[in-house]
Design a protein that fits this description.
binds calcium ion, 38% helix, Inosine-uridine Nucleoside N-ribohydrolase, Chain A, two-stranded antiparallel ribbon, alpha/beta, binds alpha-D-ribofuranose, 9-stranded mixed beta sheet, 19% strand
Length: 318
């Protein structure tokens, strides 16, 4: 039986690849996509989620819109300069025939969690506003989450949006603090394992042949240009796809149980995840922090699955 999966997301280039990866993976059944503000504004992240699902022929998957803003302090800036002003690298995908689900994201998530006979995995790959709201409004539903896999934070890799903070945690630090100090069974997939996991142009070419892969490859181009200009690299870090790979295949990353808190101050450290690496934690609020990854294996997992979406035969790398 495939595991029911919810992706909470702010598409977003790497979010789009993460959604496509889930659709290409028989281990999971994508039962719900919930959207959140983040890379771009909520209406845009929601429309992008609908369009990505439609691209893969899965406009049957419900999309429920969530929080348009952070819990306490407005997010200082969006990430249009990284993901493109519309969030998909300048690519305009065909509009979906499906409408957004009329339920708010937390209601849709709660209903699924309270009715699912199987434990549900939730992959949160945007700011954690919706998850924090779920914890406060529907605690009984939140308690039924089988696994929560978060793309966010970093233990020893500094930040990406600031010197201290990774974007998803920084975008809603108070929400991240609430979620990362809860007792939800959480895996934190942060920059320590996403930054070394790079998709290069050769990898992208391996899934770009078919109609779905070609659009995915086109979406990634903006990320490539940003990476080349910012880091001088010819590869892209698809943060969210690695987190969803862990949601699909537990053990993709190696974790250690750690206590994690978030700097919710308004100073230079805002949004920093402070991971206590002095010891393995036995606290019920501890988090499985990803500290190791076989990046080559993770990239192969992602590329081969994306290529399978077009039902083409994936030529193994010589
Ligand atoms: O720091 C990486 C995260 O920020 C990813 O979720 C990416 O989509 C951006 O939102
Ligand atoms: Ca994201």
């Amino acid at each position: 039986m495939p595991t029911p999966l919810v992706i909470d997301t702010d598409p977003g280039i790497d979010d789009a690849l993460a959604i496509l990866l889930a659709l290409a993976s028989p281990e999971v059944e994508l039962a719900l996509v919930t959207t959140v503000h983040g890379n771009v504004e909520l209406p845009q992240t929601t429309d992008n989620a609908l369009r990505v699902l439609h691209l893969a022929g899965r406009s049957d998957v419900p999309v429920a819109a969530g929080a348009a803003e952070s819990l306490v302090h407005p997010q200082p800036e969006r990430a249009g300069h990284v993901h493109g002003t519309a969030g998909l690298g300048g690519v305009v995908l065909p509009a979906s025939p499906a409408s957004v689900d009329p339920r708010p994201a937390v209601v849709a998530m709660a209903e699924l969690l309270l009715t699912s006979p199987e434990p549900v995995t939730v992959a949160a790959v945007g700011p954690l506003t919706n998850l924090a709201l779920l914890l406060r409004v529907f605690p009984a539903a939140a308690a039924r989450i089988g696994r929560l896999v978060i793309m966010g934070g970093s233990a020893a890799r500094n930040g990406n949006v600031t010197a201290a903070a990774e974007f998803n945690v920084w975008a809603d630090a108070e929400a991240a603090q609430a979620v990362l100090t809860s007792t939800l069974p959480t895996v934190l997939v942060g920059l320590d394992v996403t930054l070394p996991t790079v998709l290069d142009e050769e990898d992208i070419a391996r899934f770009a042949a078919g109609p779905i892969g070609a659009q995915a490859a086109a979406i990634v181009q903006q990320y490539l240009a940003h990476a080349r200009a910012t880091y001088g690299t010819t590869g892209v870090v698809v943060h969210d796809a690695l987190a969803v790979a862990e949601a699909i295949a537990p053990g993709t990353v190696g974790t250690v149980r750690r206590d994690v808190v978030v700097d919710t101050g308004l100073g230079f450290g805002r949004g920093q995840t402070l991971v206590d690496r002095r010891a393995v934690s036995s606290a019920p609020t501890a988090v499985e922090v990803a500290e190791r990854v076989d990046s080559a294996a993770a990239v192969e997992f992602l590329v081969s699955r994306l290529a399978s979406l077009d039902c083409g035969r994936e030529e193994t790398r010589s």
